[in-house]
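Justification of computing resources. Each target in the renewal requires a structure prediction run like the one illustrated here; the chain below, 107 residues long, is used simply to show the kind of job we budget for.
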Amino acid sequence: MKLVRKELMENCLPSAPEYRYLFSEPWTAEAIGLLRRLGWLDYYADFPRPFFRLRTPEGAQVRGIQGEPTCRVMFPGGAALASDDFDARLASLLAGVRSEQGGPEWE
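Resulting structure tokens:
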């Protein structure tokens, strides 16, 4: 699972930029579970569309839905300065994850 594209969302505050991340495969329970290594994870697996939210010690917030190849990442305040570091840590964490279906390649 790798990051394919990172897009700045429209109409977000300059002090809290929000990005849409597109991955090569959809989020799986395994990939969501790995996010615990980056911070505090809330994972609602029993929702009709399982939802997750991650908060990092640096202040970044990640929200997504299991089965979707995207998530939203917000960097409030000073966390925006750490976005490149966050991207590198996220890429390293998810590098070995493959979806159960083999997933489509979005590249």
